[in-house]
TrEMBL record:
Keywords: Disulfide bond. Residues 36-153 form the CUB domain. This is CUB domain-containing protein. It comes from Papilio machaon. The keyword Oxidoreductase does not apply.
Length: 329
């Protein structure tokens, strides 16, 4: 955890914790941490579960109200440094535990499960507070815990996310995971009484990547050595290694109507031929490249993982883990 260099009195007035000295020992490294039922307008506040890092047993709804520290702040960056909540039910709905974020100008989907390492950006709505609410069902026994770092970003900050970007990545290479992505399956059954999904239902958000200087295109591919790294629709349990994570399992275009990833104007890396569609789903992903700017992809999931009149149920989907690499001009 990173503190802020303050005078001892300032830190005490903020109910912070002094962890060391700074500024040639004239200042104190002050960590400001809040838990359930608190309010903060302090930049670099940590929001932790009661008793963190110990497991939290759940109970009453836990909220933190975040006010911006001054009128030059436009955005709140929320880093899930440690976020372990209950998995969604078998249909991807967050019933046992849930994180909801309201009050900002950004629509934030309800999420749950394992989201350590994820970061989201929420625009302030002028002086309106942003409320982070965590619902944790009492009596559910597992190592539930959370630690979020809340960074307030000035309107002229180079690190501010563009409009419409719930997530914002920087750097020439990186890995983008869907919320609650993981290789282990969800043990809950879906409404169709088959193995449930880790993929969160009812998502519709944008993920942006900053175009670095001298780079004009971007490539996306499945994360290496992970056959589950693009299992967005279909029957994972019914597929073997000749299908999972391969071009055989890849689905795109008009066949992707329920859960899918949108990549604007892509071409197939292996052939250089236009993909002819911007929608991708199924149990595999063929590497693609796009020069469409800004660099952005969209994630859409519906509310139903079960069978319909025209489609079989999705079984044991994990979501996606996509590696990106920017391409020089």
């Amino acid at each position: 955890m990173n503190g802020t260099c303050l005078a001892r009195r300032e830190c005490n007035n903020l109910n912070g914790t002094i962890t060391g000295t700074c500024a040639s020992r004239r200042g104190r490294c002050c960590i400001v941490s809040r838990t359930c039922g608190s309010t903060t307008n302090v930049n670099n506040t940590y929001f932790t579960s009661p008793g963190y890092p110990g497991a939290y047993g759940g109970g009453q709804t836990c909220t933190l109200i975040v006010n911006r520290c001054n009128s030059n702040v436009c955005q709140l960056r929320i880093d899930f440094l440690d976020m372990v909540l209950a998995q969604p039910n078998g249909d991807g709905v967050c019933l046992t535990d849930a994180v909801t974020i309201t009050g900002g100008n950004t629509i934030v989907p309800t999420i749950c499960g394992d989201n350590t390492g994820q970061t989201i950006f929420v625009d302030f709505n002028q002086d309106a507070a942003i409320t982070i609410t965590i619902t944790a069902t009492l009596g559910t026994t597992f190592s539930r815990r959370w630690n979020m770092r809340l960074t307030q970003l000035g309107c002229d900050c180079p690190g501010i996310a563009p409009n419409g970007c719930l997530q914002y990545y920087t750097g020439l290479t990186g890995t983008i995971n869907s919320f609650n992505y993981g290789t282990t399956p969800n043990t809950a059954l879906s409404a169709s009484l088959v193995a449930g999904t880790r993929q969160i239902a009812n998502l519709n958000y944008g993920i942006c990547i900053r175009m670095e200087a001298g780079y004009c295109a971007i490539q996306y591919s499945q994360a290496a050595n992970d056959i589950y790294s693009f299992t967005v629709t279909g029957d994972v349990d019914g597929a073997d290694n000749t299908v999972l994570g391969t071009a055989v399992g890849a689905v795109n275009g008009a066949a992707c109507t329920t859960d899918f990833v949108v990549i604007p104007n892509p071409t197939v890396v292996a052939t250089g031929v236009t993909a002819g569609t911007d929608r991708f789903c199924g149990l595999g992903f063929v590497p693609v490249q796009t020069g469409a700017k800004p660099f952005v992809l969209y994630v859409v999931t519906d509310a139903n993982e079960g069978a319909t009149a025209t489609t079989p149920p999705d079984v044991s989907n994990r979501g996606f883990s996509l590696a990106y690499t920017q391409v020089a001009c």
